[in-house]
Structures are given as structure tokens and as C-alpha cells.
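Holo prediction — 6-O-phosphono-beta-D-glucopyranose.
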Amino acid sequence: MTTPVIRALIFDLDGVITDTAEYHYLAWKRMADEENIPFTREDNEALRGVSRRESLNRIFKGAPIEESYAERLMQRKNEYYQAYLNTITPADRLPGVAELLEEARNEGLRLAVASASRNARMVLERLEMTEYFDVIGDGYCVVNTKPAPDLFIWVAGRMNVYPGEAVVFEDAEAGIDAALAGGFWAVGVGSSAVTHAHMVIPNMRVTLAQIREGLAQAAERKIPG
Ligand code: BG6
Ligand code: MG
């Protein structure tokens, strides 16, 4: 069995490093209630990994939204969301993440965050994790957000690695689509939405050896990577 050569790890933020999906939900829900727009937890699942603007489009179920109204709604949601972010502490790191980062750093791997969120730096600061990463890609870095591969390619370029040398950890369907489209190794975290990844792990309590083993098996199955 050939083990892929891995030089870098790329982490999505929301749902992989910390669980902010609930805060996104509560903030969108408050905005939607104020506007009398029906919005459920189930609807919120479809917003995982997609940009703020695309989230609003999905909440409106594709109906046209006047641009200045859309801007006001997104700004209000973001104010509600940031109020929740102010409550985050290092205790909100998802179990296993810090250990995996330490192990990867000790092996000399490059480390990046690639998040669609424009709040990514604020979240990493609240978690006291900024210094773990060589590169931080957020919602300001590229025009085309996930499922486009652009953000992953942006961070890979800054780490001087090829996509095929980097492993992406993602909890969202759009994120796995983006990783596969870019030619990265894709590890799905948690939900049933990520079963098209090269390997799926239930949570971030994982070692590099387990990742290498899972990817080697995927390579044997000849899944494009
Ligand atoms: C992603 C979340 O990380 O960031 C999405 O999974 C969110 O739910 C997106 O819509 C954009 O976040 P923000 O903080 O820029 O509104
Ligand atoms: Mg995510």
C-alpha cells in the first residue's frame, strides 16, 4: 500500500476547530424572526460552509432580495453573531484539535485555516489558536467561496505545497466538494453530508497515523485525489 506524502494540513474552522454553527443559527434565527421569515434548525444545516451572502439567499429560498436590504440583514445578523463570539474561550476548541495540531507541528507539517467566514480571525483569537497556523485564509481572501476550490488553493500556494500534498478537514458538503475539486485529500468530519470525502472521521480525536492509513486505503480504492 502506498502512503500519500503529506506536507500540510488545512482546517475548516466552523464545525472542525470549534462549533460555531449553533451561534450562526441563533443569529440568523433572530434576524429571520424579526423579518417574519420561516427558518428552522434543519434549514440551518444547508448553510454549513457557505458564505454569508449565499446563506441569506438560501434563507430566502432563492427569492430576489433588494441589495441594500440584503446588506442591512447581513449586517444585523453579523452583529448578533459577533455578540456570541465574544463569549468563546479556549474551552470551546473541539476535542482532539489541539493535539493533532501539536503532533503535526512536531512533524514539521505546514498548517493552515481555510474558512468562508469573515470572522475567522476573531474566532481564532478568542480560541487563542492564531499562532498555530502558518496561513489563515478567510472570507476576505477569494471571490469564489466553497464549493469553489479557490480558498484551499490560495492557502496551499502560500504554504508552498501542491494540493495533492495537503489534507483538508471539513464538516460541510460544500467544503468537501471544494477540496475534491482542487485535487486535495479530503477528510470529512462528523456528519452524513461528507461521505464523499476520501475518509470520514466522527470527530477530531485522530492521529496522523490514522489519517495516513485512511488516505492510503482511499488511494487503493482509486478515488480521485
Ligand atoms: C462558514 C460557516 O464557516 O462561514 C457558514 O460554516 C457561514 O455557516 C460562513 O455562513 C460565513 O461566515 P461569516 O462569519 O462571514 O458570516
Ligand atoms: Mg465548517
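READOUT: The two ends are 16 Å apart (CA to CA).
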